[in-house]
UniProtKB/TrEMBL annotation:
Belongs to the DNA mismatch repair MutL/HexB family. The lineage of its organism: Eukaryota, Fungi, Dikarya, Ascomycota, Saccharomycotina. This is LANO_0G09186g1_1. Residues 215-336 form the DNA mismatch repair protein S5 domain. It is found in: Nucleus.
């Protein structure tokens, strides 16, 4: 029998590609990071351009703060961020980003070109990146205030990932779904999304639209016309409040739409919440009918851990049982109050 193999450090490029693979599994993951960066930068307009499901081109144009030219050299380096300084800051973080990993990761598995202009700059600056590093110096160019991040040939050097991905159309569908869901909670931010070479937008949401209008443009009139407002006043003890729009009892759909759920403005999935709310609906709806749920939860930042998953799609929070209990009973109240058939039945 041969002895144990020797332990050797991985070389940096392997480490970076592995790390990138945990955050960026499909084009939609890169897009989500870029949208979050734009919102963090205070953008009110986010335009998205997609070619071949984001594998050929994924471009996000925003009108946010822009990036200081002097920061461009380390923009795509791992663990460089303008958002977090101490570990303790994490417990009060208000931005989506904090780890400084997204752009770095993308630059290890795609060709990245950044064009950016702050309002102090006289012109925009453009520079490309590969494997975390600038390719040459930033060049002056024409451009508006804000940032354009162009990602080309995603996964060009990760063959296994390329093979595992679905068709460009399916990747595009995932992108549209992500942008659409994001847009619902992003008040004051306009979104558009277009396939390269097409003149029509696949999605367009005006910055001035309210939540209901956003739901209409993403999920259609049938959903938007049967909504009731959900409001849970602040519960000081649990450090939580919630608002949203949920379908009323006239809404008839056999198709399950997974809840559009935000915790502290992060688009997340939370199976316990989904199950609990579906159960409440099950007692009101005819068998097989599925609800539509948009909820935006605000939980005191020190009670939430956003750093449990590389894609930040899962979050953990304290008092989860009590919080879910509160949400369920609030939903029950909301639905009871619109359930005229039921109140007729009980009074007759
Ligand atoms: P994080 O968001 O965790 O800080 P990223 O890799 O996503 O890490 O971004 C690194 C830094 O690049 C951000 O902290 C921010 O300063 C800057 N940045 C990225 N995208 C934009 C953008 N669209 N507008 C302005 N600054 C940006
Ligand atoms: Mg980020």
């Amino acid at each position: 029998m041969s002895g144990p193999s020797h332990i050797k450090p991985l070389n940096e490029s392997v480490v970076n590609k592995i790390a990138a693979g945990e955050i960026i599994v499909a084009p939609v993951n890169a897009l989500k990071e870029m949208i979050e960066n734009s919102i963090d930068a205070g953008a009110t307009s986010i335009e998205i351009l997609v070619k071949d499901g984001g594998l050929k081109v994924l471009q996000v144009t925003d009108n946010g703060s822009g990036i200081n030219k002097s920061d461009l050299a380390i923009l795509c380096q791992r663990f460089t961020t303008s958002k977090l300084t101490t570990f303790e800051d994490l417990s009060s973080i208000q931005t989506f980003g904090f780890r400084g990993e997204a752009l770095a990761s993308i630059s290890h598995i795609a060709r990245v070109t950044v064009t950016t202009k702050t309002k102090e700059d006289a012109c925009a600056w453009r520079v490309s990146y590969s494997a975390g590093k600038m390719l040459g110096e930033a060049k002056p160019t024409a451009g508006k205030n804000g940032t354009v991040i162009l990602v080309e040939d995603l996964f060009y050097n990760v063959n296994s990932r390329l093979r595992a991905l679905r068709s460009p159309n399916e990747e595009f569908a995932k992108i549209l779904e992500c942008v659409g869901r994001y847009s619902i909670n992003a008040a004051h931010v306009g979104f558009s999304c277009k396939k390269f070479g097409e003149s029509q937008f696949a999605l367009a949401v005006r910055a001035s639209s309210n939540a209901k209008e956003r739901i209409r443009s993403i999920f259609g009139r049938a959903v938007a016309s049967e909504l009731v407002e959900f409001k849970m006043p602040e519960n000081m003890e649990l450090g939580i409040s919630a608002h949203g729009q949920v379908s009323n009892l006239n809404f008839v759909s056999k198709k399950a739409i997974s809840p559009v759920l935000f915790i502290n403005n992060r688009l997340v999935t939370c199976d316990p919440i989904r199950r609990a709310l579906n159960q409440v609906y099950a007692s009101f709806l005819a068998k097989g009918n599925k609800p539509f749920i948009f909820l935006s939860l605000k939980i005191r930042p020190d009670l939430v851990d956003v750093n449990v998953h590389p894609t930040k799609r899962e979050v953990r929070f304290l008092h989860d049982d009590e919080i879910i209990e509160q949400l369920s009973s609030q939903l029950e109240n909301t639905l009871s109050s619109v359930d005229t058939s039921r109140s007729f039945k009980t009074t007759s």
